[in-house]
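Table S4 entry, asparagine synthase (glutamine-hydrolyzing).
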Amino acid sequence: MCGITGILQTPRASRSADLAAIGPMTARLRHRGPDADGFWSDRDAGVAFGHRRLSIIDLSDAGRQPMLSSDGRFVITFNGEIYNYKPLRQELEGAGKRFTGNSDTEVLLALIEKWGLEKALQRCNGMFAIGLWDRRNRTLHLARDRMGKKPLYVARTSNAVVFASELKAIAAFPDFHQEIDPGAVAEFLSRGWLPENQCIWRGVFKIPPGGALSIRAEDLSVFRDAAALQERVRSWWSLADAAQTGRAALATADDQQLISQACDLLKAAVADRMVADVPVGLFLSGGIDSSTVVALMQAQSARPVRTFTIGFGERAFDETANAAAVAQHLGTSHTELRLTSADARAVIPELPTIWDEPFADESQIPTLLLSRLARQDVTVALSGDGGDECFGGYSRHVLSARLAPLLNSNRSIRTMAASGVALLGRGMRESVVETLRLPGWLQRMTHGDRINRLADLIGSNDVGEMYRRSTRLSELQLTRTQAGSEPDSIPPLNDLLSDFIVRDMLGYLPSDILVKLDRASMATSLEARCPLLDHRVVEFSWALPNSAKVRHGQGKWLLRQVLGRHLPRHLFERPKQGFDVPIGSWLKGPLRSWASDLLSESRLRNQHLLDVSRVQECWLQHLSGRRDFSRPLWAVLMLQSWLDSAVTSGPSRTADVMEPAQ
């Protein structure tokens, strides 16, 4: 796992001045690769690559980067892992290829020599972000893995294209000027994260999951801005295609056959991610996803697997007992750390510089602390991320399956139902629930603001609006700029559960879950791997009938059956808890002074970004206890903290950072 940077200049750019920036750019990614740095440049071509190395496979100098292909045609700076590099290497050796080292990077270069970039990537099972320079054709190729596990930012400046694993490296390029995109601020405040097709800075975009971009220096005279370059991005693998293909050819196997197929596939995905020349462990929460991964790890390991979990003083947010019970049953070497709320709150000032863009998933705090704990003993940690998306584990998945007949009914019926649910939420809640003796899953929907969200969901016009309403942070519009709509790449799958899951996979997964995991782990120089997001598992999941995902009012039915072969059910059959911290109570208590300062009226008005009266109303209602606005408030606070960080540490002028919304 590593950090990568690169520069491609316009033909008329000053070669010496800007190419020298590759050093400071790469230095800003030291946390991603503390073991070594490397540089390569071609002054005549106006190109330079940088690399920070976290040694995982082949710890010798033979694995250093940037790396040249054996024929000298290609130069690569590579972040990630190719899990199937050993069989690919054997195949190439059978065809007469000889290798000087044992790294997956050298194998990838040999595949590119033989097949070209896209065909090579299609044969790879891995996570990666790649910068590749073709010295013969003088072409820069950028590519990203199928699911978007590894980040890759691209910026168009007046005299170059620059790319990097994180925005902080791009900010070190002297010709890059930070300018906030108000539309991105609106998207962030509506979701708590920024989608893949947007960046907080104008002039910057992300190579999307499964995407690739090829460009020559001469092209920069035509493609003069980031938007024009972004339109040139092509797909070498498409989640939308995988989803449509799977739904068009659903598996016809019976339950036992599906369980066996899932077991074999997941076992192989876990085994692939246990390969490393450094110590490997696992994040264990005690939930279904991480418990499945550790059970399959321990079944294939000759020694106890290292597992790690953290807990908090607040019992409602503490899963350490669950994780310990799973670890004890499987016989793992388990490390548990209990933190006070003060320990967790102490990392809040670090969050803006770790995430670079505003990011407001409060589970970023325990994920960062867990990464720090694991890094004391291992360099690689497996994670259970992806289980909810592949196997239907979120409450909105269960709800969409339960309410599909109503939500698919005509508009007038849904409007009447929405009105009834909204009435339930306006004061009749407790008495009606008690009188009607509603089932448990529906009783839970009446807590807090959930019933208002349910009314919104039922009253939506289409599936896109249903999904947005079920996932938005708040009904409040906290910025003067409206958030945009969903991207055009979402395929129509014609059943509500699949329509929700594909939106999660295209948006929430790469832009929230994987951003959280990558930045938290790499901030501690720890590589995180996700076997449940192996592309073979993803493609398999799309061919599953809905009943293999949601059954009897529970999500992840198939994954539960796999886990049931390794663990007694009482160790994992319990309500989904999540990996959260009590932000709501903290904002009323120990974080109140900090939050009040960031949400002061004068500060908000000077920034010209937010709807001041709305934010103040939200804050006052939360403090009074009338409404729980912890999630939208946390988004505003993360934006404010990020703005402070950008102003104090960024290379650009305050006027650029604080440009008012138009």
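The chain has a mean pLDDT of 88.
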